[in-house]
Structures are given as C-alpha cells and as structure tokens.
C-alpha cells in the first residue's frame, strides 16, 4: 500500500486521532505527525499557553501554517487538531493533499475520553457538555464536507478502526483490487 496518498485524520477532540494515527502509520510503515504536537514543539509551549497568550485566533494562524507545511510532505499519516476544519483554506489544503478520514464520535464518548484532560483550552469551563455539543453542531458538517471517508470510533478498539480505514482507503485507491 505504498501508493497511498497522505492519510489525514480529522475529527473532534477525543475521537482518537492521535492514537489511531500512530497505529495506522505503524501498520503502513509511514511517518506519523500530529499538527498540535508539531505546533507545541515548534513554539516550545503547550497549546493552553498559546491560547492564553495569543488567543484562539493566534493559535488558528499557527495551525494554518503548520497544516500548509505538513501536508506538503509525502507518504505521511497526519492527525489534525479538532478545529483545523474551521478555516476554508485548511479544508481545501487537506482535500488537495491527501485522503481525509473523519473519525466520528458522539459527544457522550468525547465527554468520557476527555474527562480528566486539562490540556483542552476550549473545555476549561464548567459546561463541558454544552461546549462539545455546540462544537459538534458547527464542526460536524465541515468534517463531513472535507472527508473522503467517515469512520465511527465509538466503543471500538483502535486496532479495529485502523483495519477499517485500511480497507476503505484501499477501495478508494484501487476499487478492483479491493474486490479481489
């Protein structure tokens, strides 16, 4: 499966983009990159600090530059931040430079998965569920419009999700081989 384009994971926080991305990259013998981790490494600061100092707009500008840079690479698995799809330029770049997989999860699953996570600046409020629901309403249509494939991650093992992604992406790349 070396002829695959970049595989780009989009979806909300808690969908499993980093975990599944690492496994997918290992399965395909590819490099794994996480745009949020790359931003942190480049800045020498964590995302909550960037949000505190530069606000969400400053972070989104950094994110856009990082997506431009990372999607220019070839043969990678890339996990994006949950809000990467908010900018049309990012959505266009993701679609043009890879096969985009939307890791869908419900708000209920997100709440369970991020319950103890304090590195989520947009969730540092008492009404976490309401925040996640509002983000879902805004972002779900953007994820779907950007994605080539939608894969549900609720109550599934990361390995099972990876296997499904590999099967479905292979069908997109070579529909005849996938039926063999």
Automatic annotation (TrEMBL):
**Coiled-coil region(s) at which residues?**
none
- What's the stated role of this polypeptide? Catalyzes the specific phosphorylation of the 3-hydroxyl group of shikimic acid using ATP as a cosubstrate.
Gene name of the encoded protein: aroK
What chemistry does it catalyse, as a reaction equation? shikimate + ATP = 3-phosphoshikimate + ADP + H(+)
Q: How does it assemble?
A: Monomer.
Q: Where is it predominantly found?
A: cytoplasm
Q: In which pathway does it act?
A: Metabolic intermediate biosynthesis; chorismate biosynthesis; chorismate from D-erythrose 4-phosphate and phosphoenolpyruvate: step 5/7
**Keyword list, A-Z:** Amino-acid biosynthesis, Aromatic amino acid biosynthesis, ATP-binding, Cytoplasm, Kinase, Magnesium, Metal-binding, Nucleotide-binding, Transferase
Where, subcellularly, is it found?
Answer: Cytoplasm
This chain's source organism reads Billgrantia antri
Q: Name one GO molecular function term.
A: shikimate kinase activity
Q: What is this enzyme's EC? A: 2.7.1.71
One Pfam family here = SKI
Q: What is this protein called?
A: Shikimate kinase
Q: Which HAMAP family match?
A: Shikimate_kinase
């Amino acid at each position: 499966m070396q002829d695959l384009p970049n595989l780009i994971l989009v979806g909300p926080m808690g969908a499993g983009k980093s975990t599944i991305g690492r496994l997918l990259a290992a399965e395909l013998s590819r490099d794994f990159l996480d745009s949020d981790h790359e931003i942190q490494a480049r800045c020498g600061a964590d995302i909550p600090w960037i949000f505190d100092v530069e606000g969400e707009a400053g972070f989104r500008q950094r994110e856009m530059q990082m997506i431009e840079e990372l999607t220019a690479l070839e043969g990678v698995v890339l996990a994006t931040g949950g809000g990467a799809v908010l900018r049309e330029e990012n959505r266009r770049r993701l679609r043009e430079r890879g096969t985009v997989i939307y890791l869908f999860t419900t708000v209920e699953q997100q709440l369970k998965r991020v319950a103890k996570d304090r590195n989520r600046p947009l969730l540092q409020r008492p009404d976490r569920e309401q925040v996640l629901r509002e983000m879902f309403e805004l972002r779900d249509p953007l994820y779907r419009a950007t994605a080539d494939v939608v894969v549900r991650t609720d109550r599934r093992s990361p390995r099972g999700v990876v296997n499904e992604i590999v099967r479905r992406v292979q069908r997109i790349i070579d529909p005849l081989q996938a039926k063999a």
